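Write out this protein's structure.
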Amino acid sequence: MFKSLFRLMHGQLHVGAGRVDDRSAMALIDHQARVASRDLALARRELIAAIASEKSEAHRLRNLRARMATLDGRAVAAVRAGFADMAEEVATDIAALSADCIVGAQCLKVLAAEIERQKQRVADAEMRLVRCDRGRRLVKAEQAVRALRERTTGRSEDDGLVLAEAEVTLACLRRRQLDDLSPPRRSARDIGTMPQLPGAFGSGPHGRRSPSAAEVLVGIKNRAMMANRVA
């Protein structure tokens, strides 16, 4: 009954190096723990049944002893009344009941011993199963942490490379945008080859200087005087 539980508790689960990995080992231990739990539940039910049998046997023994006491009283009364035949019949019944009482007492003794042994085994199995469950939870937590660290380590290196590339790309994009927004730079050659504007911004053709405002005004007044004379 407790074979699976005791195998699990006493470390008789042999896992060879290289034959199974941690995940397979944990799956096997989980299976063994489930089997042990079922065995423990069965042992509890059998213990309850044994206790019920003890109570039933004790009740039967009490009834036998009460009947023996009643028959003994009747036998004594029959002897006192001179009914020897009746007393002999009652004595035969009492002897049979006495044999049943002896068997019943022996049954109670066996049941009590077995119940006490079963209680100790169930209590020990419950304690060991609790310790096993704690160990399983601890191992699973350690495996989860180790797996998380492995995934995080690999991902951190990849993420670092990706972030570095993203930073370089962003810096290039920013420089390009700043270059597009800044005014264009002119070289010395471009400045030397720019055409000169005529009029007030420079000399006209043949090297003539553009007239000033005073000179323009003098010309206007002269044309006005000539126009008055003609009129």
